[in-house]
Amino acid sequence: MEMNGRQRWNIEGSEEMNKSSVTVRGSLNQISRYLNSEDDRPVIGFGHADPSGFPSFRTSSAIVEALVDAVRSWKFNSYPSTQGLLPARRALAEYFSKSLPYQLSSDEVFLTAGCLQAIEIIISVLTRPGANILIPRPAFPHYETRAIFGGLEVRNFNLIPQNNWEVDLQAVQALADNNTVAIVIINPNNPCGSVYTSQHLKEIAETARKLGIFVISDEVYAHMVFGKKPFVPMGEFGSIAPVLTLGSLSKKWSVPGWRLGWILTTDPNGILKKHGILESIENYKEIIPPPATCIQGAVPQILAKTSDEFVSSLLDSLKTNADILYEKINEIPCFTCPNKPEGSMLAMVKLNLEQLEGIRDDVEFCSKVAREESVVILPGIAVGLKNWLRFSFGMERCAIEDGVARLESFYQRHKLH
């Protein structure tokens, strides 16, 4: 169409997408632009929780062989069903039922292309006019980004650092109303590294029941705990309030690039089925791509052949790294890590700006550290907590020590005199 001799185009970028584009990857890309290409030192990546490239965190040969066997079998070259291959769903149901008071069936397992797609599915099926969802602050930002993009109102409740980042349940009850559809929890926690007790999880379930909502439990780091608290799955309390549990192969099995995730339904009272949530998930999966068939085909063998030695070695490395980061970072006056991480591979560290000269906020701090020390850290604002920092310690011990030493040098140059 032409107007006044000029061509008119009836196209425009998505305003909602531009407003809701906060992601870990995007934030780290912004910070990485400040890296000095003339600095010969290796970049220390405290920002990204992907240790799979480091020798200490490399996946086991048995897990790789499971995928190779699946590919070589010639059985997994076709399109899979939208719900996922039955042997994979059955294997996951049996695997996770070992930690639950009841047996999951294969029909209660939905396979996804990584945990991000699981988040997309659940948030999308909950979206309706006027609905809102309760999301923690701080939190993995994809929940809020996806909710905003879908038009679902976000209401943030705080995690309490002096209480080991537990949920502020009074705030949850004050935020909820008749349009609240679900509450999100992340355990073991990203970004805080905390692990919730059984009692606290039960209180969350009881609060959800009182409010008439269900729990979305992000357990990507399930069983990846190395403190004094054992990991307890939220699904243990599914008889109190229904739970959809999200997980993936990415962390415990150290293969994030394989993009295999799942949604587990722990709802023995059938509430989610009665109210159409499961049907909506099934229908949504009809319009999105499933995970690669060969990865699905490898799942039963991966679960069967993952050795205790592989998992314990990974956890030992994480515990050592968590101890080093916690002790050494707290020796630098501009940082305070209030709680030693007990799970996942992440920690939240408070940035004490009053100790620094000429730095306004966490984003400016991370930008300058990247430029001056070739250290990349995720600013806390990316996970909802301004003037904090999220550190990943999923790397070699020597890299952590080198990175913290560079941060000490940065502090000495910029400390307030």
Molecular structure report:
Helices cover about 40% and strands about 15% of the residues. Helix 4 runs parallel beside helix 11 (about 295-305), helix 5 (about 115-125) packs parallel to helix 6 and helix 12 (about 310-330) runs parallel beside helix 14. It has an 8-stranded mixed beta sheet. Strands 12-13-16-15 form a 4-stranded antiparallel beta sheet. The model has no long low-confidence stretch (mean pLDDT about 95). Helix 8 (about 200-210) links the parallel strand 8 and strand 9 (about 215-220). The protein is an alpha/beta fold and about 425 residues long. It folds into 2 domains: about 20-60 and about 310-415, Aspartate Aminotransferase, domain 1; about 60-305, 3-Layer(aba) Sandwich (Aspartate Aminotransferase, domain 2). The protein is globular and about 65 Å long. It has 14 helices and 16 strands. Its cofactor is pyridoxal 5'-phosphate. It comes from Cucurbita moschata. InterPro entries: Aminotransferase_I/II_large, NHTrfase_class1_PyrdxlP-BS, PyrdxlP-dep_Trfase, PyrdxlP-dep_Trfase_major, PyrdxlP-dep_Trfase_small, TyrNic_aminoTrfase.
